[in-house]
Amino acid sequence: DIGTEMIITKAGRRMFPAMRVKIAGLDPHQQYYIAMDIVPVDNKRYRYVYHSSKWMVAGNADSPVPPRVYIHPDSLASGDTWMRQVLDDQGHIILHSMHKYQPRVHVIRKDFSSELSPNKPVPSGEGVKTFSFPETVFTTVTAYQNQQITRLKIDRNPFAKGFRDSGRNRTGLEAIMETYAFWRPPVRTLTFEDFTNMQKQQGGSTGTSPTTSSTGTPSPSGAAHLLSPSC
Amino acid sequence: DIGTEMIITKAGRRMFPAMRVKIAGLDPHQQYYIAMDIVPVDNKRYRYVYHSSKWMVAGNADSPVPPRVYIHPDSLASGDTWMRQVLDDQGHIILHSMHKYQPRVHVIRKDFSSELSPNKPVPSGEGVKTFSFPETVFTTVTAYQNQQITRLKIDRNPFAKGFRDSGRNRTGLEAIMETYAFWRPPVRTLTFEDFTNMQKQQGGSTGTSPTTSSTGTPSPSGAAHLLSPSC
DNA sequence: GGCTTTACACCTAGGTGCGAACTT
DNA sequence: AAGTTCGCACCTAGGTGTAAAGCC
């Protein structure tokens, strides 16, 4: 699997699907912070080769942005509190386009931490646990490259309903045809696993001439924001 | 002046206008909490007498609800931080209908406070300063009693635009007539001062027979929520 | 040519007072 | 009769991918 893509813009864009985490094994009476950051997977820049549906290395990474940590707003809560709920992190984290990133979750004991701040890297050592889930790696883009990913996001993100096949430019007959010929299971929440299981082949039928892979000159791109959704 | 009215419902309703506060005189390097609560003005229940446009005492207050404190989400910030911004508090506070209430703002030095909690009354003594602005007293209702207040809220609250005279059931002629005959100044934010300056006479022209003031039996009302707006 | 930016139609989410129905 | 609840039409606010324009 090649992971999903995330659109980034100047104004900031939510990540979809969202990072969702459940915590176990904490000391119920101890106080903890929980924080999140997103780190580069490697120091490469990528380009997408349409005809092979693959991301290819296209040079070295842009100069790194100062690391940014998102501290969960419920932070400094007891282990008891944290373990009772599923977390939906939210925040603003600056990323470079056309790079691969890995979101991480940090659980930090209060008695250890030294002044947790959004602008300082998460401390490391005893009392700090960091978790990375490989299936949540994604590539930043300013426009989707892989049509299968576009399709999944449109089908599963409620805010993109306007782009679904059903409900837009369909006549009575089309609606009936969709019901049978192009039927897809009911909408459910999109998860990162959906991209892990995704086939690498795209079903595009628009007659475009395949392009040859080339080592394009990596153009420097301005850093942009990516937000993960609230709720 | 008689203060404004605030609608309360089971699901919770924002307060409009909102409580807005600017802080001065803090030690820039000291840490402070800022909190808000709403306390009864007296232990009376009220009823509105339409023909005299006045609120009359109608018995003793319902049994008080456990006090609830809203802690500003930026809390535990430096005096420097607090003084730099205007505060728009938000939260859930339970109130009885047909009572008069007074919102308060509390500024609490960190080194004094002993476990600030939404469910405990604000501590008092050295290191805690409480502010009450008499012009922000209001009466809770489940439906507006005074038509002037309804009018002001519709005119000034952007979410109530659908009930404004202009833009609803108006023909071309009506629109022109409004422009001249019923002209009112451009929309601006509603403040509590608008109610302080409000005339006690209502301009209602619907032919309703005036009711005589009576000592109505106070019906026990379920407690409901009032929220103050975010942003 | 590859990538980014911008304006946009189309949604979700939720804040308004209203009026009918309901409760006491 | 007085007050509360509920569903509603009508808004604001803001999250989607898109297509055209802009940039390099």
Give a short summary of the structure.
The structure is a homodimer of 231-residue chains. With 231 residues, the first copy, chain A, is α+β, with helices and mostly antiparallel strands.
Q: What features would you describe in this structure?
A:
2 copies of one chain form a homodimer. With 231 residues, chain A is α+β, with helices and mostly antiparallel strands. Helices cover 13% and strands 29% of the residues of chain A. Chain A has 4 helices and 13 strands. Chain A has helices spanning 79-84, 147-156, 172-180, 193-196, and strands at residues 4-7, 20-22, 31-40, 44-49, 54-60, 70-71, 77-78, 86-88, 91-95, 100-109, 128-132, 138-141, 224-228. In chain A, the strands form 4 sheets. In chain A, strands 1, 3, 6, 7, 10, 11 and 12 form a 7-stranded mixed β-sheet that branches. A two-stranded antiparallel ribbon of chain A has the order 2-8. A two-stranded antiparallel sheet of chain A has the order 4-5. In chain A, a hairpin with a 4-residue loop joins strand 4 and strand 5. The longest helix of chain A has 10 residues, at 147-156. The chains hardly touch. Chain A binds a DNA duplex (24 and 24 nucleotides) through helix 2.
